[in-house]
Amino acid sequence: MRTKSSTIRTDRAVITLAALLTGALALTACSSGGDNNKDHSNSSGKAGGPTASGSTVTLPKLDGTNLEIAAVWTGQEQKNFKQVLAEFEKRTGAKVTFVPAQDPIINFLGSKIAGGQPPDVALLPQPGAIKQAVHHHWAKPIGPEALKELRKNYSQGWQDIGKVDGKQYGVYYKAANKSLIWYNAKVFKNAGAKEPKTWQDLLTTSQAVYDSGVTPFSVAGADGWPLTDWFENVYLSQAGPEKYDQLAQHKIKWTDPSVKRALTTLAQIWGKKEYLAGGQDGALQTEFTKSVTQTFTGGDQPKSAMVYEGDFVQVNIGETKAKVGTDAKVFPFPAVGSTAPVVSGGDAAVIFKDSKAAQALVTFLASPDAATIQAKLGGYLSPNKNVPLSAYPNPVQQKIAKALIASGDDFRFDMSDQAPQAFGGTPGKGEWKDLQDFLKNPGDVAGAQAKLEKDAAAAYGSGS
């Protein structure tokens, strides 16, 4: 659940952001992802923005202070974030330790707190988790310096998502555009396939790819969260923003006809064994990272031609030899209804041990300085409007970032991330598990709806 202040207000941005992305992603051919994982921290930020070594935010001296920050980030994403922490250490003299967390992070934090060893700061991927941390009296409000940076650098909408009962607890350090489908350019060329604009176009493209001898999709069924994102894009476009907000707050039931329609639409892809790498059983054993890498390895005969997920896919593409914009291209999630969907997500920095050092770290993460460092490393998107677009390493990311900032306060946040953790953010439970069961048996729409409603009612009723 989330506060009324963070409920999205109109569908205007769905139209605006989709239009911007359509034009932006048409430029993929002139981009190169070869720089995605290089260290650009010494590059100069243009357009009057900060540099990685600039000093646009004032930080206290913290010599001899030790801090811990927890997040579920792994691989290249974790490695890149550690460069941001290294800059904070350089400026303040503090020592920051990154603590790898497990999903659901709220449970991980609960165990740490019970043991008397909470991290100073944690990055929470769900507004519902922030609310839960506040209600458990774990989270601490951010102080005046962090608030000053937040108000200077973020739209009101991004500020509001981090509020609980009117107080600011979260700073959204990272954002995501979760309405993108990435594809193997060689496969599309060989198949004579075109980038689809509508859901029907996507089905046509999928058939063309299949006829060329390549399986159309990798679906990361082993990780429940990509399945929720699939559903949200279909539902937002098909049912519309008002219904989306109602379902996100459980003001309508999952047995609603609009949910039946969305699941039936999803089954047009999930229900075709030949359209999924490994079929339904193989998809359920495919983790997110593998779903990406197997789409961009194997030349023009990969295990799949397309993979759905957000802008952060670029980090995983960077682990292959494929280059974004040439070998790996992208198009906006096609319109299922009258308008293409745009779903956003993100990770918020929340303080769990209130101290001068913890407040300073969150202040730094709210500044353009921190976000600019990670933007230059690729595979990252910031809602901070004062990060220079030139910081992003290729035209694709620059245009996606521009579109996100242009949307201002009007956007739709990931539905499952708004839900109580027990329903929308726990592996093997709730929506994650129910959609995995649906992927296994896409013909049972009514059964999936019944499971989803039962689990949603229990979670929203308890607030957990």
From TrEMBL:
Keywords: Signal, Transport. The keyword Signal applies. Residues 34-59 are annotated as: Disordered. Residues 1-28 form the signal peptide. SUPFAM superfamilies: Periplasmic binding protein-like II (SSF53850). InterPro entries: Bact_solute-bd_prot1 (IPR050490), SBP (IPR006059). PROSITE patterns: PROKAR_LIPOPROTEIN (PS51257). It comes from the Bacteria. The keyword Signal applies. It holds the Pfam family SBP_bac_8. Belongs to the bacterial solute-binding protein 1 family. This is Carbohydrate ABC transporter substrate-binding protein. It comes from Streptomyces pluripotens.
